[in-house]
Amino acid sequence: MRLVTVVSALALALTASSALAQAPAPQTATAAKASAAPYSVAKTDIGTLLDDPAVKAVLAKRVPELVQNDEIDMARGMTLADVQQYAPDMLTEKALADIDADLAKLPGK
Asked: Is 31 a domain residue?
């Protein structure tokens, strides 16, 4: 009778272990925040960024000459990372990283 109890407990433990192994790993707080960021300089087009007032404020703070440019509407379908090649002095790697950091702080939509 004691052997049956041990075997049952072992079977229960193996079942639980198997279920845990198949369960998705919990996200870290950083990963959850990163996945919640709705905007990115590499993936979000400029038109979408400019259409959100909170994001436009970030861009006005970080790259005011871009936001105030009369021809910015011609680039609405491009990303900031795409435009970097045309304005490398304004859209440096640091500037893009700073904008991405600010965008990550915005509340999710």
From this structure: no
